[in-house]
Design brief:
Blueprint (H helix, E strand, L loop, with lengths): L2 H17 L5 E3 L9 E4 L9 E7 L3 E6 L3 E2 L5 E11 L11 E7 L19 E11 L4 E12 L18 E3 L15 E10 L2 E11 L2 E8 L10 E9 L5 E11 L9 E2 L12 E3 L16 E6 L12 E3 L3 E8 L8 E8 L9 E5 L8 E3 L13 E5 L2 H6 L10 E3 L3 E8 L5 E10 L8 E8 L2 E7 L13 E5 L2 H6 L10 E3 L2 E8 L5 E11 L10 E3 L5 E4 L6 E4 L7 E5 L2 E9 L2 E11 L3 E9 L2 E8 L5 E3 L10 E2 L5 E8 L7 E7 L5 E2 L10 E2 L7 E8 L5 E5 L6 E2 L2 E2 L2 E2 L3 E10 L7 E10 L4
Parallel strand pairs: 16-21, 22-27, 28-33, 34-39, 40-54, 46-54
Antiparallel strand pairs: 1-15, 2-4, 3-15, 4-14, 5-14, 6-11, 6-15, 7-8, 7-14, 8-9, 9-10, 11-12, 12-13, 17-19, 18-20, 20-21, 23-25, 24-26, 26-27, 28-29, 29-31, 30-32, 32-33, 35-37, 36-38, 38-39, 40-41, 41-43, 42-44, 44-45, 47-50, 48-49, 48-53, 51-52, 53-54
Amino acid sequence: MKKTLLFYFSAVLLFFYQNNSAQTYQLTGNPVNTTGWDIVPSATAPNDFVQLTADQTGQFGAIKLSNPINLKYCDKWKVEFDFRIDGNGTTAYGRGDGLTFWYLSNPPTTFTTGGGLGIPANANGLMVAFDIFNNSTEGQMSKVHLLYGTNSTPAGNPNIEYNMAAGSTFHSPDLQATQPFVGSTYKHVEVNGQVDPANINNWIIQIKIDGIIITNQSFAPSGGAIGMTTGYFGFSAGTGAASARHSIKNAKIFIDKVPILQNTITPFVCTNPSTGNGFVDLTSYANQFVNIPSNYIITYYVLGSSTPIATPTNFQYSGNTTITVVIKDPSSTLCDNGDARIILNPTPFEAVDASMTSCNNNNAGVGIFNLNDAAVTTLPGVTKQYYPTLADLNAGTNQITNFAAFPAAQGTTIHVKVTTAQGCVDNAIITLNIFPVVVVNDATLRACAEPSNPSVGIFNLINANVTTQTGTTKKYYPSLTDAVNGTNEINNPTTYTAPNGVVYISVFDSNGCFTVAKVTLIVIPQVFSTVLIDKVICIEDKTTLDAGPGFTGYQWSTGATTQTITNIGVGTYWVKLKTGDCTATQTVKVYASEQPVVSSIDISNTTITVNVNGGTPAYQYSLDNVHWQDSNVFTGISRGMHKIYVRDVYDCEPIVVNVTVPNLINVITPNADGQNDFIDYSALSDKLDLTFSVFDRYGSKLHQGDKTNRYTWDGTANGRKVPTGSYWYSVTWNENNKNKTPVKFSGWIMVKNRD
């Protein structure tokens, strides 16, 4: 059996294990589907099994594929089936004889005696027999026989049980005790084969019964099996003088090929005019047969030759030549696929003139061309050389080396020399054209200044009217260099924040060509009112706010939309001033005037001096809130309680301070006569921080009036009468008001002490 057998077996196996439904030939179903098979009587297919013989003597039956199978390219194969041998047997011989799986060039078509297990004399091929009758002892047994050769022994009554061809046969020990073949249940058989790597003419055959390996060894073909590539698969059985029912089911014969993408390719090839020969890399077409050629072993033959091409990467041909391609998958049980063909029909090579069109981007005056893209030929694997003139091409001078990015003006012609992989040469002309320039114009955009950052505005760059050409698209860039190079694109063109300046827009047409337009950005400054300023009013007053003329719209925080608003009290207000399309928000404050504060009051005899701070000078003063004076000094004031009114320049509601002018005593005569014996200011004891002090003419304090002495002085110091004379005194306190106005009352007193 040659390699082809393994190829077909392998393909079926792969599909069976990977796709679960790719057996090329099988006997399955209920009843068994025998389409494509020939049944040789007395075999029948009554149910889900094929009965090769009935339980009778003199029976023979077989089933085989209707068409022969060429296994030339198979190096792996597999067959699976289940068999059952049962029945009553005969008194003399018991049950017999057994059944055989085979691949034969001359399968049985009529009765074959039982001893041969249904295999005719001189059958050539592979035979695997399951024998239950020992023809030597005429007893029962369970043995496996294998013959890879010709069933010719013994002469006249051939039986593979007795064929001992060296290296081509196998006979198992009797398995009756461990794996008896006779019984009511089916036994599962697997027969695997593959080319022996040590000798490609031999097969390594492995046989399993119910998962137990019976044999696994190399077999050499002998007799008529040598060189055999075509045969029939089948099964047969015979009973002879014994009796048994032989049945098989679930038979599967795996003989699929390696799948290929296509069977035939006809690449363009040519011959060198000077030699009449051409060279081609046959391996360069491998990916047209399989997706990943490196996963396969691929061999090339000239059609009709059995010798592989020694150097397929540089195969020489001279005329029409057909190459047979054999593809082997070493990782699977698929059979090799020998259906692939490479048809080499040399024809003259011709390069064709072509034209190319490129963009004159930003009106640079030239386009940039990749000359390799010119469609001067569709052949793969060619080399191209470019020249500015035909004379340069012929002389091989001034070859263009920057052909991948060649700058050229409208109408430039380039001459190209095209050389195929086979060495064929032709010339062509490439005409270079330029697309029309994209027409653009510069533009200006204006945007209102942002309130939070008046130096910038938010621009919608899409609104820049830079072209009237239809079907264009635009991209936006911060600089001309970026626009030309396509870098740092502005991704937020509808909300682009920028100060006064420029941006650039690349305008693309449907050809992908572009021209750059400049857009000037102008930030419209905010316009504020020059007359609307903060005001100061009395807390109880109202005022008018005027934003001034010249604006196209007003919107006050009060809801008013007029230039002025009236009856406005103290507070913070804003107005939105519209100029054109821009609006500026201006804030104005109306402050309450600061009230003046009486900081202190000095009383000297009948004169009151009022000291004021705060508010806004100049101040005015009054004792009756009717008559006002600019001076802060009041004279001729009587003893007792008085109100002092003060107002500032805003003429707001005046502040009022109560002040007490104490009773003035100028002379005391401390002689205990009950008349003017002491100074007494206890009437002011309800004042805050009341202090009463007496000093001599040198400024030394002689007496401190306080709660302990009831704010009195009797003309003594340190328990002794002071000398008769004049003494200075002061009385200070704070009025009982919110500002605790300090008051100072001072004067001189005569003390007359009599000894």
